Amino acid sequence: MTVQCQALVDTGLGDNILFPSTPGSGYQASLDSYYSLDVREIKPACVFQPRTADDVSKAIRVLWKPLSGNVAVRGGGHSIWPNNNVAGGVTIDLSLLNQTEVHQPNEPNRAPIASVGAGSRWASALLEIEKYGLSITAGRVGTVGVAGLTLGGGLSFHSGRRGFACDDVTNFEVVLATGHIVNANDEENADLFKALKGGSGNFGIVTRFDFAAFTAGDLYGGMVTAAWDQKDTIVESFIRLIDINEQNPADSQIVLYMYDPANRTSTVSSVLVNTDGITNSTSFEPMAEVPWLADGRATQTYGELVAAMSDERGDRYVWFSLCFQNNKLVIDKATELWETLIDETQDALGDVDRLIFVFQQLPRHYAQKNPGGNVLGMDESLTEDAIVWLGEAFARTPEAEALFQRRIGAITEELEAYAEAIDAATQWRYINYVNEKQDPIKSYGAEVRSPQSSIPPVVRVLLTMIFAKQNIAFMKQVSAKYDQWGFFQTRVPGGFKISHVE
Ligand SMILES: Cc1cc2nc3c(=O)[nH]c(=O)nc-3n(C[C@H](O)[C@H](O)[C@H](O)COP(=O)(O)OP(=O)(O)OC[C@H]3O[C@@H](n4cnc5c(N)ncnc54)[C@H](O)[C@@H]3O)c2cc1C
């Protein structure tokens, strides 16, 4: 047994520790419940499953000691790269902190609060909250964790009305590197409150999220799929949807190019949702004549929809992400790169479960819901309506994974360069979607870039650097204040670290 795991046992936490050598301890079940096969293959010396914030606090008081080994923090375990598990160290698996409670307000004009444990997944949290006729600004796939998604920002079907999931957090319960349990909200530890809204795992271990809840009925939506020759109609409709989204904030669309290696065909799917339950929303009118090959839309609750969209596949995932302006030329370029990718990788595609390009809406008004209230920096940098793009391969073998890391990495660079060249680039990169080789925190600042801008490029670059540094400097200050010895920067190696950003 390692010194670290022994120290946890000596602290009286032995009942919550899972060892590889103890059959039936739950160690393997914990590893098998990660989303990514690459993460499942990482073997910690022991897995610690706290039942309370107090358990986390006791463990951190032991684990922070300098001669101890490394630590990982796991919420829902859905990150596609190993920022949530640690070889030979202690993985803190929060999955038993999975309670959801709804509190009605004591004062008029206050929102009800949904308190969600940091090990919860979206489907179970939402289905509980919906028993009260309420919802929260939630993720869109039921098995994904509440914690990682919210700490990184959180794109939701409710984003048109509410902004990012993190914007609707009213309080975080956090265990600091000292082991102290604190609340971070508007009144207590307000700097930490803001830094946790987008700053991911840089500042502490969040054990509970208190979300502002709101009344919600059924939505109308689900996944539709069409033949490849329908892509132009669908893409043009998507661009229009973004253009008119501020007036139609209940509507959202996720466009997915999907390649099926078995049939050697591409299809184009969309997840279409109206959160008000309207079945013929104006945003989707241009697709009224599309002959869908499959149409999964239904009137249902948000929780029911995301429970049906759960995904626990266990492949070797390759993800890269970009943002660019809502400009058809960039999507056309992505389409050209998609077709070339498929042509040039035919031999390897037998080892891939899926190849996907995803396009998601990021209209400017999403960033205006909580100005200055998070560290994403988009209220300054998102000067135009935008699209978040994801290039993904679900590989079955390490060889196929390595190949698509190279190929999709190169496509990302080419698409980024193209968007720059036609002045359609957008600075922000989403921490929850990027490849581990990308650098999202660097993008958390203001950008002064606009096609109409008369500011010379050199001045724009300088201004961008200055504003970006303001947000980064703020996060560095918060890290230094709440984690004086840099425990979450050095001893919890997983994730994008604020200390690594210049
Ligand atoms: C199928 C699928 C669908 C998705 N859909 C969406 C979507 O609709 N919207 C969206 O915005 N994103 C989406 N994502 C991306 C998602 O936000 C990230 O994968 C996110 O990291 C998942 O959260 P998790 O709790 O499962 O993460 P984990 O893998 O458990 O953790 C991710 C990171 O957060 C840190 N962390 C986790 N919990 C805590 C905590 N309590 N305290 C401190 N640090 C912590 C971990 O150490 C790690 O670095 C999706 C991902 C997948 C795979």
From TrEMBL:
<keyword id="KW-0285">Flavoprotein</keyword>
<dbReference type="InterPro" id="IPR006094">
    <property type="entry name" value="Oxid_FAD_bind_N"/>
</dbReference>
<dbReference type="InterPro" id="IPR036318">
    <property type="entry name" value="FAD-bd_PCMH-like_sf"/>
</dbReference>
<comment type="similarity">
    <text>Belongs to the oxygen-dependent FAD-linked oxidoreductase family.</text>
</comment>
<dbReference type="InterPro" id="IPR050416">
    <property type="entry name" value="FAD-linked_Oxidoreductase"/>
</dbReference>
<dbReference type="InterPro" id="IPR016166">
    <property type="entry name" value="FAD-bd_PCMH"/>
</dbReference>
<dbReference type="Pfam" id="PF01565">
    <property type="entry name" value="FAD_binding_4"/>
</dbReference>
<dbReference type="InterPro" id="IPR016167">
    <property type="entry name" value="FAD-bd_PCMH_sub1"/>
</dbReference>
<dbReference type="InterPro" id="IPR006093">
    <property type="entry name" value="Oxy_OxRdtase_FAD_BS"/>
</dbReference>
<feature type="domain" description="FAD-binding PCMH-type">
    <location>
        <begin position="40"/>
        <end position="216"/>
    </location>
</feature>
<keyword id="KW-0274">FAD</keyword>
<dbReference type="InterPro" id="IPR016169">
    <property type="entry name" value="FAD-bd_PCMH_sub2"/>
</dbReference>
<protein>
    <submittedName>
        <fullName>Bifunctional solanapyrone synthase</fullName>
    </submittedName>
</protein>
<keyword id="KW-0560">Oxidoreductase</keyword>
